[in-house]
Structure formats: structure tokens, C-alpha cells
Design brief:
The complex is a heterodimer of chains A (120) and B (187). Chain A is elongated. In chain A, 68% of the residues lie in helices and 0% in strands. In chain A, helix 3 packs antiparallel against helix 4. Chain B is mainly alpha-helical and 187 residues long. The longest helix of chain B has 39 residues. Chain B is elongated, with a radius of gyration of 21 Å. The relative contact order of chain B is 0.13. Classes of the chains: A mainly alpha (120), B mainly alpha (187). Chains A and B meet through helix 1, helix 2 and helix 3 of A and helix 1 and helix 2 of B.
């Protein structure tokens, strides 16, 4: 196997485990934090989008339509988030069920509060 | 699908394919958001025709049409680290090519659209300046589907999936990978 420049022993030997780790860089199973932050950012950005209807022109985009879109998108994003973390940790001993539960629970409660109290 | 020779260590390839998948899911979330803004934008234009080029529905829609080609472009840069995802003649993967071209079309259509509306301040859905928004998105979706299926198929080839914990399901999984799953039903 030909390895990229800077990897391997320089001879015909294969990749050592240190080489493999160097080629991998940050492992995906250690990315749960950044994935959770990205999901929360996506959820807030979704609220930012439907807020155009809640606050700027509710006569054109009625608040109930905005809430409907916000709830559906939150569910879609939550499924994507769950799949991301589960697939990244697949085959390893890491389990982040507590973080997943807290993040999904937080956005679910936030979505309900926004749907009940935000808008005109 | 023929088993491709391993050009990089298996573990490295699995990690890289999963990193590609993470970016693709982020792009998928963005594309879902575009679909919702299609309704917001349509709703606005049915009510107030066209108040301004910089109306909030357009901030939302247009920022996506810049973010999506750039995001998929970043997939293309990272994709070069996985040899099995190369396209014909060592070029970019065909699905990825279609996706980037599709979203680039929507990005350039922003300019075409604003130029058209400089003269015609209507918002009829079927006018020609809107065609390329829709065609671009459809081409991009087809390409993205082909690319995601390729990434997933390679993850399956590499055995990256964890078999079920239930021994009966694990046995079915093993038989499926060996191509024997249906041989009992069709002797």
C-alpha cells in the first residue's frame, strides 16, 4: 500500500497504528459535542427563518403556518441529529445517550414554548 | 458492485466516509430549510407581490443558494481523500458533480432573477427566470442521492455497520452480507 508523503517508514512496510491515527485526525466518535452544537445552531436558524413570518410580515405568512413549518423542521433536524451521533459512535464503546436526551429534550420543550407563546 | 481494492487503511476510510456523511446531513438540513422558505416566499409574493429584493424571505432563500454550492464544494475538497469515491478518469464523483452544478445554477439564478425583476415587478411562479431555481434544485437532489447511496454502499462493503444485538438479527445480517438471505425462499 502506498502511503502519502510523511507517513510510513519510507520502505515497503505498511501503515503503523500511529500512521493510521495521524491519517484519521479527530475521530468521528469524539465529535458528539460539535454535532450537538451544530444541531442547536440549525434549530435556532430555523427559528430565525420562521421568525420572518412571526415578526416582519405576519399578514403574508401567518404565525400558525410558521409554527407548523418550525415543528416539522425541528423533527426532521432531530432525526438527522440522532442518526449523526448514533452512526458516528457505532462500533465503539462510546455512548452519549445522556447528551442526546438532554439536547433533544431541550429543543422539544423550546419548540413547544415557541409554538405556544411566540408570534401574533 | 465490484469490491474495490483498498488504497487506504480500512479504519481511515470508514472515518473519512463518516465525516463526509456528517457534512452531507448538514447540507440536507439546509436543503430542507430551502423547501420551507419556498412556502414563505410564495406566501409573501401572493400577498404583497414584490416589496423589495432584500425582503426577509429572500435573505433566507438566497443565503442558502450561496451556502449550498459552497458546502458541497467543501465535500468535493474532502472527497479527494477517499479514492473509491473518484469519478470517471479520476475526476470528481459524478453525483457530486451534478449536485454542485445544480446548486451553482441556483446561485447564478439569483442574479438572473433580480435582473428580470428590475423590469418586471410581478411574481408569477412560472416565469422563465424562476425555471432554473427549480431545475437546479432537482438536478442537485438527484446527484446528492446518487452520492449518498455510493457513500452508504461503501460503508456496507467495509462492514462498518454494527450487526444487531439480537442473535437472530445478527445471523440475518451475516447472511445478507454473504448474499444468502433469500436463498432459503428461492431454492
Amino acid at each position: 500500500m502506498t502511503l502519502p508523503k510523511g507517513f510510513g517508514s519510507g520502505g515497503s512496510g505498511g501503515a503503523s497504528s500511529a500512521d493510521v491515527e495521524k491519517m484519521i485526525g479527530r475521530r468521528v466518535e469524539n465529535m458528539t459535542g460539535i454535532i450537538s452544537l451544530a444541531y442547536i445552531a440549525a434549530w435556532l436558524a430555523t427559528f430565525g427563518g420562521t421568525a420572518a413570518g412571526y415578526f416582519y410580515y405576519p399578514w403574508a405568512y401567518p404565525t400558525p403556518s410558521g409554527h407548523y413549518a418550525f415543528i416539522v423542521l425541528t423533527i426532521v433536524e432531530a432525526i438527522g441529529y440522532l442518526f449523526c451521533v448514533k452512526v458516528m459512535e457505532e462500533g465503539t464503546k462510546r455512548k452519549s445517550n445522556g447528551i442526546i436526551g438532554a439536547v433533544l429534550g431541550g429543543t422539544a420543550v423550546g419548540t413547544i414554548i415557541i409554538s405556544l407563546f411566540v408570534g401574533t | 458492485m465490484a469490491q474495490m481494492p483498498a488504497l487506504i487503511p480500512k479504519e481511515v476510510e470508514i472515518q473519512r466516509l463518516k465525516k463526509i456523511w456528517l457534512i452531507v446531513i448538514a447540507m440536507g438540513s439546509t436543503a430542507a430549510s430551502v423547501e420551507v422558505d419556498n412556502f414563505v416566499d410564495g406566501s409573501l409574493h401572493q400577498t404583497s407581490i414584490r416589496d423589495s429584493a432584500f425582503t426577509p424571505a429572500h435573505w433566507w432563500l438566497y443565503s442558502h443558494f450561496v451556502a449550498l454550492p459552497l458546502g458541497w464544494g467543501s465535500v468535493a475538497i474532502y472527497d479527494r481523500k477517499v479514492p473509491v469515491l473518484r469519478g470517471p478518469n479520476n475526476s470528481m464523483n459524478t453525483g457530486l458533480k451534478m449536485t454542485i452544478l445544480g446548486y451553482l445554477a441556483t446561485m447564478f439564478t439569483i442574479g438572473v432573477n433580480e435582473m428580470w425583476h428590475f423590469w418586471f415587478v410581478e411574481e408569477i411562479f412560472a416565469v422563465p427566470n424562476h425555471w432554473m431555481f427549480n431545475m437546479g434544485v432537482v438536478v442537485a437532489f438527484m446527484g446528492a442521492l446518487a452520492y449518498v447511496v455510493r457513500v452508504y454502499a461503501r460503508l456496507v462493503e467495509l462492514g462498518a455497520e454494527t450487526p444487531g444485538e439480537n442473535p437472530y438479527v445478527a445471523e440475518l445480517y451475516k447472511m445478507a452480507l454473504e448474499g444468502k438471505l433469500y436463498s432459503r425462499a428461492i431454492p
